[in-house]
Write a structure and sequence with these properties.
single chain, 240 residues, alpha/beta, Rossmann fold, six-stranded mixed β-sheet, four-stranded antiparallel β-sheet, binds adenosine-5'-triphosphate, binds magnesium ion
């Protein structure tokens, strides 16, 4: 089967600092994957490299059958590979509706603005209720919804989410998890970065554990480890 995304032997970083070392991950058509691992070990760097914000010094990246290694970020967006970044990257003074409209300016998504907007408001009714509210006055959870909404305004054919539930209460995390699950069910495959392995397994079929910029383990949902084994992955044999 042809792969949707193929990252092969990629080395990348920031100037003289190498973060990713010969890393390979892939996504078959119709599946979603998760990435997890300790803080500062390269998960965000990997997404930034796939999005074209960083250029690999070695290796190749292909998406939908096309080589996108070294391609410009806007060309990658136009190809349908969309990233919702980690943390708050919204413009505080802009209203919810303005923010979503601005996100749809890419050539790819311009004509689908109205239907994409409807899709975002169906998925996140809280945003619908807050159309004219400024981004800086939204709660943390609502800001995450708006970030994901912006990614959906780009008509993604692959959506990469970097820690979408960071800092959210368990209830809001479940709510956002349900919405993200619905995005996948609607036919948009996902690459999700999260620290919570069980949460990731509820959303995606396969996980990669990343340490020191390398894949150190792959986990299949079909043969998923139990909670204790997952804890051992993080804390070593001392965990129970
Ligand atoms: N712009 C930058 N310039 C230099 N080094 C950077 C830059 N951004 C990240 N790094 C470094 O790259 C390494 C990997 O960071 P990255 O953000 O990819 O980790 P992460 O796995 O996403 O961590 P977290 O779980 O905390 O989000 C870290 O050592 C970080 O300090
Ligand atoms: Mg990160």
């Amino acid at each position: 089967m042809e792969r949707l995304l193929d990252v092969s032997g990629v080395t990348a970083g920031y100037g003289s600092i190498t973060v990713l070392r010969n890393i390979s991950i892939s996504l078959d058509r119709g599946e979603s994957i998760g990435l997890f691992g300790p803080n500062g070990h390269g998960k965000t760097t990997l997404l930034q490299t796939i999005s074209g914000l960083l250029t690999p010094t070695q290796g190749t990246i292909s998406f939908n059958g096309a080589d996108i290694t070294g391609a410009k970020p806007h060309d990658i967006v136009n190809a349908g590979l969309i990233q919702s970044p980690q943390g708050n990257t919204l413009f505080g003074e802009m209203q919810v509706l303005e923010t979503l409209e601005l996100a749809s300016i890419s050539k790819r998504a311009r004509d689908d603005k109205a239907s994409n907007l409807q899709r975002v408001f169906d998925l996140f009714p809280r945003l619908d209720e807050r159309r004219t509210q400024k981004a800086r006055t939204l709660s943390g959870g609502e800001r995450q919804m708006l970030s994901i909404g912006c990614a959906l305004m780009c008509s993604p054919s692959l959506l990469m989410l970097d820690e979408p539930t960071l800092g959210l209460s368990p209830r809001l995390k479940r709510e956002l998890g349900d919405a993200v699950g619905n995005i996948a069910k609607s036919g948009v495959p996902l690459v999700v970065v999260e620290q919570d392995v069980e949460f990731l397994l509820s959303l995606t079929e396969r996980l990669y554990m990343i340490e020191h910029g390398e894949v150190v383990r792959e986990i299949d949902r079909a043969s998923a480890p139990d909670h204790n084994s997952i804890m051992k992955l993080y804390f070593g044999e001392a965990a129970h």
